[in-house]
């Protein structure tokens, strides 16, 4: 990926609503050149979409938990993500190495709602669960720094020497 495209990706990751004019100012390109590059990044799948970051407390979902799941029958098909897709309280499903097969990030209204969701997860996917309740989140949704100097500078130094 070209350095200028990495810069655009970094800027958009920090602020997905950044205007083409602001992107142009930050990158030194024309507005039309930035627009073309962003469209190319979208077509290539580098930029897959834009999303609003929701205040979950404000919408009545203050309880976040991570639910580790593993099949009760290890010989059963590995189809838990498909079996759980209908449960809207599951925000993310990560395949992991270790004792568990997947870790789910869930958001619910209350401990009782979490208990209900855990029952639904167990019944839907025929899995056992281990749950960790989040007490607070100091940070989340951090933008990655994909610019070359952030990646390569630590290994080679600012002048490129090892």
Automatic annotation (TrEMBL):
Q: Which segments constitute the HTH asnC-type domain?
A: 1-62
Q: Which UniProt keywords apply?
A: DNA-binding, Transcription, Transcription regulation
Tell me one Pfam family matched here: AsnC_trans_reg
Q: Source organism's superkingdom?
A: Bacteria
Q: What is this protein called?
A: Lrp/AsnC family transcriptional regulator
Q: What InterPro entries does the annotation carry?
A: ArsR-like_HTH (IPR011991), AsnC-type_HTH_dom (IPR000485), Dimeric_a/b-barrel (IPR011008), Tscrpt_reg_AsnC-like (IPR019888), Tscrpt_reg_AsnC/Lrp_C (IPR019887), Tscrpt_reg_HTH_AsnC-type_CS (IPR019885), WH-like_DNA-bd_sf (IPR036388), WH_DNA-bd_sf (IPR036390)
> Which Gene3D superfamilies does this chain map to?
3.30.70.920, Winged helix-like DNA-binding domain superfamily/Winged helix DNA-binding domain
Which organism is this protein's natural source? Nonomuraea monospora
Transmembrane residues, as ranges? none
Q: Where is the signal peptide?
A: none
Q: Which SMART domains match?
A: HTH_ASNC
**Record keyword Transcription regulation present:** yes
> Region labeled Disordered — which residues?
141-162
Keyword Cell membrane on entry: no
């Amino acid at each position: 990926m070209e350095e200028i495209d990495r810069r655009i990706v970094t800027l958009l990751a920090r602020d997905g609503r950044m205007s083409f004019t602001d992107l142009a100012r930050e990158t030194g390109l024309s507005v039309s050149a930035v627009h073309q590059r962003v469209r190319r990044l979208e077509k290539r799948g580098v930029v897959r979409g834009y999303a609003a970051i929701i205040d979950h407390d404000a919408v009545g979902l203050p309880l976040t938990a991570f639910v580790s799941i593993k099949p009760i029958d290890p010989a059963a098909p590995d189809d838990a993500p498909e079996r759980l897709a209908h449960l809207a309280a599951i925000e993310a499903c990560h395949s992991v190495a270790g004792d568990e097969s997947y870790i789910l990030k869930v958001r619910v209204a209350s401990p009782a709602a979490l208990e209900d969701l855990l029952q639904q997860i167990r019944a839907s996917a025929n899995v056992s669960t281990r749950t960790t309740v989040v007490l607070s989140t100091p940070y989340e949704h951090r933008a990655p720094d994909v610019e070359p100097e952030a990646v390569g500078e630590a290994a080679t130094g600012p002048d490129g020497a090892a």
